[in-house]
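Hi everyone,

Forwarding the result from last night's run.
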Amino acid sequence: MRLRRQMNPRGRVWASKSAAIGRLAILVACFTAVSASAQTTMRQYQFSSDSSGSGIALAEVPMPSAGPNEVLVRVRAVSLNRRDVSMLRRNYGRGGNTDGQIPLSDGAGEVIAVGANVTRFSVGDRVAGIFFERWIDGNRTAEGLASARGGSPGGMLTEYVASHEDALVAIPDHLSYEEGATLPCAGVTAWVSLFNYDPLQQDEFVLLEGTGGVSVFGLLFAEAAGARPIITSSSNEKLERARELGAYGTANYRENPDWQREVREITGDAGVDHVLEVGGRDTLPKALEASAFDSHIAIIGGLSGFASDVPVGTLMGLGATVTGIYVGSRADFEAMNAFITEHQIRPVIDRVFDFEEAPAAFDLMENGSFFGKIVIRI
């Protein structure tokens, strides 16, 4: 296949833009690889604690290298999730001491070296880490769920990471590293919630609670699929922004404590077909009141804590299906990326912090005054 060339008015030859960008990326990656090979140490944040409490500390640690089946990635951007603050405060899962472990599950960067047996990636490729390093496809397993990044050696808040090639995916070409870094947890969670168990159909109503990462991804995916997303928030400013992104309806739960009735009105009293339930015990009963018969409830998080009593009677009366969502597999990530590419979806980023400002990024995540995702550029 011959490369088509076009002469500009002064006679200079211009190759296709995409080819030029590709060559530039490879040159930058090669330069980075040469520079990295001369390094013996790198900067990395680790969970730490002292008399003032838990936090993160910047450390200088030895540079990793790629093993036979591994890829060495120069991390360019990472993003935060609510889980990361819970780990910081030591109230995630069973809690416990995470000192010395690397925060954050979500990150994207460029491949700068590959092991001798690697076949999936080459130097210069743009990649993101998958949330569960050993959940490749199929149903979840104990082994897969034990391989979550963040608070582990596979954490992404570091300048370089060596990862098994199977634990990475290519990021869509139209996304920046900052945008690609938002995908592994919140993006995949929203995708699995809407498309894996009761696949979203055109014109169906979707209830999204709040304007954090999962809910905003749900808004973007539902709008692209031709569905009717309805989103809640305590901020009219955020609701206006959601409408600009394609929200079919909005409800302010601070101004209207019985927001579930407003949601039902928006649906013409039919109720919503899908719920991305991120709130927990304070929102689940109201979400069920807003739900249609035979709806699907994706239980994702519990910002207000988890209810100990499941409203079985209400669920049975609705004929609703409830699914517990814990991110998804690499195959789910790749399916989502194909959808993102097809519809040219761009993740919504509220703010980008510099690497040295990482503690401030955690503070913003904790206070909740953001829309979409929070990113740290490395």
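Confidence is low (pLDDT under 50) at residues 1-19.

Cheers,
N.
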